[in-house]
Design goal:
Layout (H helix, E strand, L loop, with lengths): L2 H10 L13 E11 L1 H7 L5 H14 L6 E5 L4 E6 L5 H23 L5 H8 L3 E16 L2 E5 L1 H8 L10 E5 H4 L4 H7 L6 E7 L3 E9 L23 E8 L3 H8 L12 E5 L11 E6 L2 E12 L5 E8 L7 E11 L2 E9 L8 H27 L2
Parallel strand pairs: 4-6
Antiparallel strand pairs: 1-3, 1-4, 2-3, 4-5, 6-8, 7-8, 9-15, 10-11, 11-12, 12-13, 13-14, 14-15
Helix pairs in contact: 3-4
């Protein structure tokens, strides 16, 4: 075997035990969630926080993964997922698409609730939404240094399908390559909440490419509809709040809560914090806090104040599995020159459990966590 042959053989190797076909290709599911309205939003929003919001939304798409998909590429306003092997059932696939869409929209709703935010105003005027393209075919998988590269005709197909003849920008598209793997009755049953329609688009070199599509708009009825089991004595809907006076000025309290280094000194169960010291103090900065036996990822989102001296500092919480896509608001209200009230408000999209008892228990546990953290903060600032 020559040098070139050896290099090609190595690049075809993938960390998978499945045997390759004679043409070096493997069956794979390809799925692309694509943010509609991305370019217009970035160009016309006028908000310096717009790129950070889009980065958050891409992270939301990745966190919504329940099919054990692999991320191949992040392409500006879209994520290319893949999974080698047989296709998932259409019921599982629809469950995945619904989760992606609902997590995406629920996060936007959380941001939009902040009516004083320039970013929220931009979202209300320049709507962002999601389309999802699904294809099943064969791919060649190559390792190029530390990167995995997907190649082949079907990779081209899934990208071309992003540009199609479907009216609107909020839908899921299933290629003929995927729908042919599923029984027609199963397809109909999985989309009983909307309408699955046929369509096709002609692409140069690919020819007429058939697909089926369904609008995601009916899922909007599920947004911000809090089930009774999602509430607790300390919160209504998808919000938890704790409130306490602090014996310091509001501006001082803000400096303490936004100081990453101090977080283990007042957050319940926190033992260490990890962050890039060169980026501390900037909006959009991410940091990690070791809490009990796990770790919580935070990202600073925005800091607002009004003419009455009220201050709102906002952080996004990532990889918080039972409460995905959560935002933590610190509302500071001036009482007098030496005192303020701090309200910790956690807003979450949903609780990632089907068990009512688990949801109720986790809400109570999270409320205790917030309450004890606030007590710790009050004790810390009292020592100043």
């Amino acid at each position: 075997m020559g040098v070139l042959d050896e290099l090609r053989a190595r690049r075809r190797v993938v960390g998978s035990a499945s045997a390759l076909a004679t043409d070096g290709q493997q069956p794979a599911l390809l799925l692309i969630p694509d943010i509609s309205g991305f370019t217009r939003f970035i160009e016309q929003s006028g908000s310096p926080q717009a790129p950070f919001l889009v980065a958050d939304l891409l992270e939301i798409l990745i966190e919504a993964n329940i099919l054990e998909l692999e991320v191949n590429e992040i392409q500006g306003d879209a994520v290319l997922f893949y999974r080698l092997g047989p296709p998932p059932s259409v019921a599982d696939l629809v469950r995945q698409c619904r989760r992606i869409y609902l997590d995406f929209q629920n996060y936007l709703r959380l941001v939009e609730r902040d009516t004083g935010s320039e970013l929220a105003a931009a979202l209300q005027e320049l709507a962002l939404t999601l389309k999802i393209v699904v294809h099943y075919g064969r791919v060649s998988v190559a390792r190029i240094r530390e990167h995995t590269k997907l190649m082949g005709r079907d990779v081209i197909v899934v990208h071309r399908l992003l540009k199609n003849n479907i009216a609107g920008s909020e839908y899921v598209l299933l290629s003929d390559g995927y729908t042919r793997t599923q029984p027609p009755a199963a397809l109909a049953a999985a989309f009983d909440w909307t309408r699955l329609s046929p369509g096709s688009t002609f692409y140069e070199y690919l020819g007429e490419t058939p697909y089926q599509y369904a609008y995601l708009s009916p899922l909007r009825l599920l947004l911000n509809t809090a089930a009774p089991s999602d509430s607790a004595p300390t919160g209504r809907g998808r919000v938890l709040k704790v409130r306490r006076p602090l014996p310091v000025p509001a501006a001082y309290a803000l400096r303490v809560v936004s100081n990453f280094r101090l977080r283990p000194q007042w957050m319940e169960g926190a033992t260490a914090v990890h962050y890039d010291v060169t980026k501390a103090g900037r909006l959009g900065t991410s940091y990690k806090v070791d809490v009990l036996n796990g770790q919580i990822d935070f990202q600073t989102v925005q800091c607002l104040d009004d003419d009455e001296g009220h201050i709102t500092y906002v952080e996004k919480i990532s990889h918080f599995r039972l409460f995905p896509n959560a935002l933590l608001f610190y509302h500071l209200e001036v009482v007098d020159i030496d005192t303020c009230f701090l309200t910790l408000e956690l807003r979450y999209g949903h609780i990632a459990s089907d068990l009512r008892l688990v949801r109720f228990g986790q809400l109570r546990r999270l409320h205790r966590f917030l309450g004890r953290s606030l007590i710790g903060l009050a004790e810390l600032v009292a020592k100043r």
